[in-house]
Amino acid sequence: MERAECDVLRRGGRRRKWSAAGVTAVVLLALGSCQQGSGGTWKEPVKGQAQALLSTDLKHNGSPDDGWLAFGGDPDGLTVGPDGKIYGLGTSLAVIEADHEARGILDTEVHGAGGLVVLSPNSFVVGNHSQLLKMQPNGARTTLAGAPGKHRKLWQPVPATAVAKDYHLSGDRIEPFGTRSDGSILFSDGDVIWQLKSGRLTRVYQLPKKEAGKVIDHGSAVDQAGTVYLTSSTGGVWGRFGDIVAISRSGSVGGFDVPEQITGVKGDPADLELTWMAGDAGGGVYIRAREPSADAEYVLHVTSGKTELVAKQVSGIDYDSGCKEGHLVDAMKLPCRMPDALTYSPGSLVMAGNSSSVLKIATK
Asked: In the chain, pLDDT over 90 holds for what percent of residues?
């Protein structure tokens, strides 16, 4: 089936309900042919391989679709839901379904939101200005933390604990980024990382006084052991690999022993600039990094005493080609622009944002 015919079917499927069972069957069969013909039958990548999970190019006569709006522009949130599906937040909130199509969930309701935690397919946590909100597909919202009105001042001491709805947050980068095994929600608030559980905030970490003027960057992470990873910066400067802070569940604060050299990486690893992080299934973290010169982009996996290169993209490539649905590529020689954000799903990474593709990279 031709791509144009597939696009018509997909647009129609999103915009109307087909009432006749026979018509529904025909449409589903046709969409199956679309998936097979969009570049080849989907093949799960194995370790060292990558494949486009979704194309985020402007389609349908140049009009933005759900995939482009949620996954194609500047990333505000990217995560795996309890249902195993990939959810993305950009100018809208969407999910990638089993047919490799993006389905919109919320649109104008999430404009200005940042960060994303999926509690269920019908419950999403985002940050919006000075509050942490739970939102539903019908647009309903519930305030989880942050009293309306004045904001707290950045770089001033904060309490160890507080009633979530009564406490004034900073209003600067309120971004949920994960949960711990007890169900508590983790989010950044300017210069502080908070943990929310049962209506109370608990301070996980606050930037020290010597870093006054900095705020916590986008893309903080938590691994399965509950360790939180963050970087901070000021004035729009990227955080660096050498400045990552790790806070264990017990509250101990440390960093990484940055190796002097990483196989496949040029220059001093400590100077690599970070755009996003994602905790793994154990006691480590995946890091999306770039050289200060922008000559190369990387994904690194950092565990105790070991740093490994997982994916690489060098400059000078044709961003409009190379990573397509149905075509496996070498993750160490990505022939397309490496997306800015990443999230971990058991056995693989998914990357999205400021790229023409959502990439799936096998890690085992």
From this structure: 73
Task: Indicate the Cα dihedral angle 243, 244, 248, 253, nearest 10°.
Answer: 10
Tally of CB atoms within 10 A around 204: 22
pLDDT digits (tens, 9 = 90+) for 259-286: 999 999 988 999 999 999 999 998 899 9
Q: Give the whole-angstrom CA distance, residue 232 versus residue 238.
A: 8
Q: What is the DSSP string of 170-222?
A: -SS-EEEEEE-TTSPEEEEETTEEEEEETTEEEEEEE--GGGTT-EEPS--EE
Report pTM.
0.87
C-alpha to C-alpha distance for 82 and 121, rounded to whole angstroms? 8
Helix axes 3-15, 21-37, angle to 10 degrees: 140
3-state SS, residue 120: strand
- Count CB-CB contacts under 10 A for residue 287: 26
> Is there a contact between 145 and 201 (Cβ–Cβ < 8 Å)?
yes
Task: Name the DSSP class of 63.
Answer: B
Please, which residues have CB within 8 angstroms of residue 235's CB and are 6 or more apart in sequence?
A: none
**Percentages helix, strand, coil for the chain, rounded to the nearest 5?**
15, 40, 45
pLDDT over 70 at 31, yes or no: no
Rg (CA), the chain: 21
- Read off the amino acid at residue 275: T
Phi first, then psi: give them for residue 202, nearest 5 degrees: -125, 130
User: Look-up: residue for tokens 């009105």?
Assistant: 149
Cα separation, 340 vs 128, whole angstroms: 21
Q: Among all chains, which residue has been given the structure tokens 């569940």? A: 249
> What tokens appear for 69 in the block?
């709006």
